[in-house]
Amino acid sequence: MENYNNEQEKITVEEENAELFVNETVESEEESLADRVKIISPGKLVLKRFFRSKLSIVGLIMIVALFIFSFVGPLFSPYGETQKVGATKVTVSKISHDMVTTDKDENGNNITYHLIEVSDPYTLNSKTPPTSKNWLGTDQNGYDVLTRLMYGGRVSLSLAFIVIFAETFLGTVIGAISGYFGGWVDQIIMRIVDIFNCLPGLPILLLAASLLEGWGVPPKQKIYWLMLILTVFGWSGIARIVRGQILSLREQEFMIAAEATGLSVRHKIFKHLIPNVMPQLIVQATLGLGGIILYEATLSYLGLGIPFPLAAWGTMINSTSGASGREILQNYPNLWIPAGILIVIAVLGFNFVGDGLRDAFDPKMKR
After folding, report:
1. What are the boundaries of each domain within the chain?
2. How far, CA to CA in Å, does 188 sit from each of 138, 162, 172, 237, 287?
């Protein structure tokens, strides 16, 4: 009997040891698994997906290079935005006049005097090709083209970011109100959005810019009016996107819980709904930056955007129009081709980054 008890005790001890061994093995496997598995936050996951795309990296490099060129480059340029550094020549203008008098010559004919009006000597700036001092030459006003490109980038990029921020803010607020309240509020706001969507964008901008010109708005204030016009006619698309997202989000469980806790409408919209729409807004804003730059360049090219002597890429391309435009277009490509290249780089860069962000925020995209 005693031997039987001893054997039972041995079996019990062996089972306890085996169970302890199994537990230690499971714990060690869990620890090793935890060491191998790294938890990544949603933000880091988006960045990882974004930098995995080669086009996204190329677009980001383009944008960073443009910002360095536009905002850091003028610090190293020896010339100013409106500093005349080109070749000059002293010239005079001559205007001929024929004046018939009542005086008679020996044959009895009226005497005609041929007068030449000569102006005082004045200095005239001339266009110059690229040199070691002026890498892209100088324009018809004697300004350094490379320096003007830098300052033009400041205007174009700053205007694009300010306008897209204002558009996004206005469209987000209006779209959120429309999607949250629904009913007659949604109907009224959406009909207003439909009206703005039906308006032809570029002709309206041209008309508005012409009205500003006719009203005699000071040149330095035209850029602010241009920002306002672009914002007023650009918010409707973002409002429709936000409204569609919030219509689906307001029926989710977290919004039912927020409703049960008695939160205010402002708190539910700005603390719970809009943050869930931010990924779509970021993508839309990034893709819209290229469009704003094209609008500004088009208006400046037509002489209705950034006023002279302020530099803008579209204004520099505008030098190919007018009486001397054909000569510049054929013989001085250094005056307009670089500005066109920078516009293309800016639009492509923002589009590449926008596409990369859209893919990075979409969890269904295959990697």
Report:
1. 2-37, 49-84+139-361, 88-125
2. 54, 28, 16, 16, 28
CATH top class, domain 49-84+139-361:
mainly alpha
Say how many CA atoms lie within 13 Å of 5 toward its Cβ: 2
Closest to 299 measured CA to CA, from 280, 288, 313: 313
- The encoded tokens of residue 191 equal 């009909």
Q: What is the DSSP letter of 106?
A: T
Measured distance CA(242)–CA(277) in Å, rounded = 7
CB 287 within 8 A of CB 271: no
Query: What are the tens digits of pLDDT across the range 78-116?
Result: 888 888 876 666 565 667 666 656 566 666 666 666 666
In the numeric block, the tokens 């869930």 are attached to: 276
| Residue 265, beta-bridge partner list | none
pLDDT at 21: 45
In whole angstroms, give the CA distance from residue 262 to residue 250. Answer: 15
Asked if pLDDT for residue 327 goes beyond 50, the answer is yes
Alpha carbon of residue 319 to chain centroid: 24
Residue 28 confidence (pLDDT): 53
- In sequence order, the β-bridge partners of residue 138 are 128, 144
Q: Which pLDDT tens digit goes with each residue over 213-255?
A: 777 777 677 777 878 888 888 888 888 888 888 888 877 777 7
d(CA 308, CA 342): 19
* Cα–Cα dist 53/360, whole Å: 9
What lies within 8 Å, CB to CB, of 213 at 6+ separation is 304
Provide, rounded to the nearest whole percent, the portion of the chain with pLDDT above 90: 7
The reply to whether the predicted model has a pTM over 0.90 is no
Q: How far apart are CA 344 and CA 156, in angstroms?
A: 13
